[in-house]
Design brief:
19 helices, mainly alpha, 535 residues
């Protein structure tokens, strides 16, 4: 798989991710408005538990399946690749059942004794069936990703999110009117289960239609030694367990965060309801915006794993370095402007999205926005390390960063005038430390270099210019147009400014655009309007 195919795979998943995040915004923002920080806080307690169990049952398995399938298909052992999929399907079926039962059985203990938020009981319980469907989805997605076909994953993600949003909002509003905020949060949670079932049906249909091409008829399979089911499971677990442990670090920290933040806020005088509201502003409102850039960087990380894995199998260091540089550069070009934009317009954005929320949630977003740059870089570097067969390295690095986060969060959240913002500062430090360690690990493993001019100076110049323009535009417009319209216009002008700066500084080159769909036409248009220099 060459660099252009990697970028096309990332483009497909990234495009699906953008659609998903737009739909997610239509989910979280109305929930924030109708349920408020308190209701979102109950929902986030459930989502925190769900994400933690997802990390153990799902997170590492698609990557492991993708890597093993990719290696089998590289040697044209299509039957062997398909057996890996079938084995993973039954493995995930069992994990899905066990995980769902754990949530159902442990819910009461967790909300009463761990989080001290008993009103979150129904929101946590409603997440249980979602884990079952998403486990089965992971087996299909890993198989298709291993064949370098990212479209089925993208389609299933869009279907899953669409159904989740529609059902989740409908149930939340219905139950808010008929019962109370606890059940409304549970209705929002249950949307994940219905969405997971819909996504599973969609990708299973695609699999059924394309099964003939996945295991081509007439290809000689007898030359390959068939792996036993035990061997396949052992190989899957060998790769996935370190990845799952790494993926579980942040959900675990988020669970501890929930525990620490809710308790520490109550220790310094906030009521349980007020503490839940502040926690909702941090995890359900500000974090929603922080996670938006991951749409692209997660797609980059997923796409780069099989590419680097194949290159590592051939000991092709040039291809590894080329794709590592592309992944890091693309992630930086996404994360940097997002961080600057969220920081410069933190209060206007939160006021636009959650106008009735008391206090100043924009301050929480301001502190948390700096984490975006490091988080997006962590994801792309983790994809490279996973492709190199070093999935344990980012696990250790993230665990080290998470250790710093716990200490910082505990100390700062207990200071009354800092309160919940202390958890945001802890998150920034965690991601920064993990990013630096991942970067050093990739450089040590590959010898890859990242030029200061192309990977730092040019992107920073573009981002800072954008930030200055955004501030000036907003301040000039807000006296006349009000906050909402001024914020939207400032964001639009900022995005255009950033794009123009990337082209004029040659941060984005013709080679980068050429691998995109209709790349030649894009280059021709940009050259014609003099945004891109002629060759």
């Amino acid at each position: 798989m060459k660099k252009d195919n990697f970028l096309k795979g990332a483009f497909i998943l990234g495009a699906a991710g953008i659609i998903i995040k737009i739909m997610g915004a239509f989910f979280r923002i109305p929930l924030g408005r109708y349920l408020g920080g308190e209701g979102i806080g109950y929902y986030q307690v459930g989502y925190t538990v769900f994400n933690f169990l997802m990390a153990f049952t799902v997170a590492g398995l698609p990557t492991a399946i993708s890597k093993l399938v990719s290696e089998k298909r590289a040697s044209q052992d299509y039957k062997g690749a398909h057996k890996i999929f079938k084995t993973s399907f039954y493995l995930l079926l069992g994990l899905g059942i066990v995980g769902s039962l754990i949530i159902a059985v442990m819910t009461r203990y967790l909300v009463d004794n761990v989080f001290k938020s008993p009103n979150a009981y129904y929101a946590v319980l409603a997440m249980a069936p979602a884990l079952f469907f998403l486990c089965l989805l992971a087996s299909f997605r890993g198989y298709f990703q291993g064949t370098k076909n990212m479209t089925p994953t993208a389609i299933s993600q869009v279907v899953e999110q669409f159904v989740r949003v529609v059902i989740g909002i409908a149930l939340a509003l219905y139950l808010l009117k008929r019962l109370d905020i606890r059940f409304a949060a549970a209705g929002a949670s249950f949307g994940a289960a219905v969405g997971g079932a819909a996504g599973l049906l969609a990708i299973a249909y695609i699999y059924k239609r394309s099964k003939g091409s996945l295991v081509p008829v007439g290809v000689e399979h007898s030359q390959f030694e068939e792996q036993t089911t035990k061997e396949i499971i052992r190989n899957i677990l060998k790769i996935s367990i370190p990845i799952s442990l790494g993926a579980a670090v942040m959900p675990l920290i988020n669970m501890l965060d929930t525990f620490i933040v809710l308790r520490r806020l109550q220790d310094i005088g906030f009521t349980a309801s007020e503490a839940t509201r502040l926690f909702g502003q941090l995890s359900g409102m500000a974090n929603t915006l922080i996670n938006l850039p991951q749409v692209i960087t997660v797609a980059i990380a997923i796409s780069v794993v099989p590419v680097v894995a194949e290159a590592a199998e051939r000991k092709d260091l040039d291809t590894i370095n080329d794709n590592a540089q592309s992944a890091v550069k693309l992630s930086l070009l996404v994360g940097l402007p997002a961080a600057i934009g969220l920081a410069t317009l933190a209060t206007p954005i939160m006021t636009l999205l959650f106008p009735d929320e008391p206090g100043n949630p924009g301050q929480v977003l301001l502190f948390l926005s700096f984490a975006v740059v490091f988080l997006t870089q962590i994801q792309s570097l983790t994809g490279v390390l996973q492709g190199l067969g070093k999935p344990h390295v980012p696990v250790v690095n993230l665990f080290i960063g998470a250790g710093f986060k716990l200490v910082i969060t505990y100390v700062l959240t207990g200071i009354p005038h800092i309160n919940v913002k202390g958890a945001a500062v802890g998150t920034v430090f965690a991601y920064f430390i993990a990013y630096m360690l991942n970067l050093l690990s990739v450089k040590k493993a590959t010898g890859v270099t990242f030029g200061i001019k192309d990977f730092f100076l040019k992107p920073v110049l573009s981002g800072v210019t954008m930030g200055i323009i955004v501030i000036v535009v907003y301040r000039q417009l807000v006296p006349f147009l009000g906050n909402s319209l001024s914020t939207i216009i400032a964001i639009g002008i900022g995005a255009a400014t950033y794009g123009i700066m990337l082209l004029r500084t040659s941060t984005i080159t013709k080679e980068d655009l050429d691998v995109l769909p209709k790349g030649e036409k894009i280059i021709s248009l940009l050259t014609k309007i003099k945004l891109m220099k002629k060759a």
